[in-house]
Each structure stands twice: as structure tokens, then as C-alpha cells.
Amino acid sequence: TGMYEGKLVRLRALESGDVAPSHDFVNDYETMRGVTSGMLYPSSFEDETRWANGQSSYTHGEYQFGVETLRDGVFIGRCGFIRVDWKNRLAELGILIGDKNYRGHGFGSDAVNVLCRFGFEELNLHKVKASVFDFNEGALRAYEKCGFVREGRLKSELFREGAYHDVIEMGLLSPYQT
Questions:
Q1: Does position 56 have pLDDT exceeding 60, yes or no?
Q2: DSSP at 43
Q3: Are 84 and 124 a contacting pair, CB within 8 Å?
Q4: What kind and span of H or E run contains 163?
């Protein structure tokens, strides 16, 4: 398999054709309630187009990929490093499997594995981290399946649906320790 292929998914550049499905993903309340700490506010097609146009191979410190199924090339979401700290060789990971038919079947954890391999083998990262809302059981399980460990709990960091929730900080160290 290539650098960007896993068992179930391929990571690829985001293309203009991904804007419409992405727009649907980010406007789905159930999808976004578990992944964004920001206000759950509708995103316009123009906003999504602007976001997609800002992603390119020239972007420094943010590396976003489209996630498509290996078998039939269906665009199911996106993932990437949302912040890279080059001095400390540390990156924060974000992932969104927007197509609900592909949740809970290993596509997300496969994408995380491929992304981490890219981070460790290509970007020479020392550590990848992720922040997960305590109610997002699927994400917690998926990260743990990929080898991430729970490093800490940030109390009452997220206000969602009239209540405060904890955020679980998860981390994965590079297998290539130097």
C-alpha cells in the first residue's frame, strides 16, 4: 500500500467536487455536535468553498485530506493535522466521517492510522494528539484502537446542549523514537 492508503480508505487532496458533500456534512447537527467546540452555526456553501480553497499543498501548519473508500472511491469525510508545532514536532489531529453509513465500521480509525503514518514517516512528527468530547464514545474507541492513550481530562471545557462536558486529551507517540 502507498503512503496514503490504508485497509479501507485512501487519503487524497480535497477537490472542488468535495465542497457539496462537505457542505452537507458540516450542516448536519448530529455530525458536528461531537467534533466542534465552536458554536453549531449553519455554514453557507460560500463558507465551505472558501474553506476548501484555503486547503492546498502550499498551506503550512495545516494538512487536510479528503477521505475516500478504497474499494469504490466514495468521498466520506476529511481528516488532517489542524495544527502543527514544528519546534516540538507535535500535531493535533482532526477527523470528520461525514457520511453516516460509514461510521462504526472502521473507516475512521483506518483514516487515523494512515494520517498518523504520514505524520510519523513523512513529516517526522514526534507526537500526535487529539481532543475528544467525553460523550463521543465512538471517537474515544476509534482513537484507542489506533494506539492513542488518554493523557488527561479537561473539566467542563465544552458547553453543549445546556450542559458542560469534559474534554479528553489523547496522545500517540511516534514509533520511531530518536
A1: no
A2: -
A3: no
A4: strand 163-173
The pLDDT tens digits of the residues spanning 99-149 come to: 889 999 999 999 999 999 999 999 999 999 999 999 999 899 999 999 999
For residues 129 and 71, give the distance between their C-alpha atoms in angstroms, rounded to a whole number: 29
Strand partners, 159: 164
For 57, 100, 151, the CA distances from 54, given in Å and listed in that order, are: 10, 26, 32
CB 172 within 8 A of CB 116: yes
Cell 502543527, located at residue: 84
Share of the chain above pLDDT 90, in %: 56
In degrees and rounded to multiples of 5, residue 160 shows phi and psi of: -145, 130
By three-state DSSP, how is residue 55 classified? Answer: coil
Q: Which residue has the cell 469504490?
A: 72
- What is the phi/psi pair of residue 25, to 5°? -60, -50
Rounded Cα distance between 144 and 161, Å, is: 26
Compute the chain's Rg from CA coordinates.
16
| Grid cell 480508505 in the structure block, residue | 9
Residues 6+ away with beta carbon under 8 Å from 25: 31, 77, 96, 98, 99
pTM: 0.84
Nearest to 167 by CA among 136, 122, 138: 136
